[in-house]
Description:
Elements: H1 14-22, H2 26-38, E1 41-42, H3 43-50, H4 54-66, E2 70-74, E3 82-86
Antiparallel strand pairs: 1-3, 2-3
Helix pairs in contact: 2-3, 2-4, 3-4
Amino acid sequence: MVAFAGRSGSETTPQQRFKRLLELPPSAKLVYRVLEDDAPLTQRQVREDALLPARTTRDALTKLKEQDLVEERLYVPDARKRLYAPLPVARPDDATG
């Protein structure tokens, strides 16, 4: 298991992230769902699980990173690769408090 500790500067709530996720294209939503199921994954693993072309997967991950919906870390076995993991999202009506 890989730990994604030390999140820097992310002050958004899961509800805010959910709203941003809704505004993204379907490919980004699919990539997010794949990451929710099996994270952390490399870009290649995401591409294979989502059955998307490499360029579409790259674009989706870029959009997710820009919207602070995924976290990117170094993949230790191969420093040229990165691992991706989703940040939690929650529907606004799912608030527990």
